[in-house]
Amino acid sequence: MKRVLFVTWDGPQVSYVEGLFVPIFKALGGRGFHFDILQFRWGSGDTAEPLKRLCAEAGIGLRLHRVLRRGGSMGAMATAVVGARAVRSAAAAFGSDVIMPRSLMPALAILAGRRWTQPIIFDADGLPADERVEFAGLDANGAPYRLLREIEASMVRKADITLARTDAARDILLARAGPMVSPARVRIVTNGRDATLFAPIPQAERVRIRTELGVATDAPLIVYAGSVGPQYRLDESVGLLAAVRRKRPDAKLLILTGSPDLVPDALAAVPYSPHHVIVRRVPPDAVSAYLACADLATAYRNTGFSMRAVAPVKVAEYLLCGTPVVGTAAIGDVRSAVAAGVFMDESAGHDAAAEWLEERLMRADAEDIRRHAREIGLAHFSLDRAVGDYATALEAI
Q1: Cα–Cα distance measured from residue 377 to residue 176, given in angstroms and rounded to the nearest whole number
Q2: Are 261 and 229 a contacting pair, CB within 8 Å?
Q3: Gap between the Cα atoms of 207 and 217, Å rounded
């Protein structure tokens, strides 16, 4: 059994470690890899309790290290540089055989530590420096951006294996790292979800949830689940709702998010009625049922450069729940879902998506389409697929 130390850097509002990584790490135990987590974080201690409980239940070791927030980005950089000691301490305590930093600040800690006896797997997970340029106002010509880019390239060169989420991300990382990094050292892994948790629900449960939401059993229900921000283009979901309501005035949009307070500002420029848009924050273990009771899900994303490297987790959740999707096919690898007719690219337009919903997804063949969506989810977006991808990468070192 090899022990792997996963090093991550998160704020209190982020739950992807619990939702995405812990299930993968737990399942990898059956493939001969025991995971422990070192999380650099900020926020009150109470916000870490869910992760502590989940790791304890999964048999995953956990250490927390506070990020210095004073001084803005300089405080974070200082934490990362001196964080090499925290990584060494955790690796010694857990007896780690492999170290896996995720993203740039943990990568900086590894680079600052210079020599490591353990193999390094760098989970690049996107292009965070470029995301900051596109969505946080970072100057692409400034020193901070150049520093982040250098951290990224240096980490790809240092790592034995680098993990990316898309073919485009792999190509970009290889080009930036230079010819000394062979293509075999950058592997693609899937953001898979647990098919036993994200699954279709019985008709009676579907009716119950719709009744709770105030949505008729036969009324079109569109769902969006996830974060609220400019890159998620929530206004497009409302635009789709408007197109559907021209034929079906009883249609509604359900928005599931951990930040419901951000929704009004995100939709400030879009005319909509609160009677037609339902905003909910639900417990993580209840999300699946709400997704499964909808007729169509949305996955619109900004198509900026950095988005070429992301694979939206929500697409996996939607399809595993048997809910067809309309969204941005250029983001993530959804070719299999498009070819299977369970993912419509946004380029078709809102009217075409509304017609698809009315003529196909609300008619007699709806169950066949939902079943097919589930099959595609199982084949390409499941936890089993993700575990296989990670195991293959780990076995290569």
Answers
A1: 32
A2: no
A3: 6
Domains and CATH numbers, the chain: 2-192+384-395 (3.40.50.2000), 203-381 (3.40.50.2000)
Q: What are phi and psi of 36, to 5 degrees?
A: -125, 160
**Do 2 and 60 meet the contact criterion of CB atoms below 8 Å apart?**
no
Greatest extent of the chain over all pairs of C-alpha atoms, in Å: 64
* Rounded Cα–Cα distance for residues 163 and 181 (Å): 13
The residues, ordered by sequence, that sit 6+ positions from 65 with a Cβ below 8 Å of its Cβ are 38, 39, 40, 41, 79, 83, 86
C-beta of residue 104 within 8 angstroms of C-beta of residue 97: no
Q: From the first residue on, what is the mean pLDDT of each consecutive set of 10 residues in the chain (397 residues)?
A: 95 79 97 97 78 95 85 68 91 98 95 93 96 94 96 98 97 98 97 96 97 96 94 96 96 95 91 92 93 98 93 95 97 93 97 95 88 97 96 95
Say which residues have a Cβ less than 8 Å from residue 90's Cβ, sequence separation at least 6.
5, 7, 36, 38, 63, 96
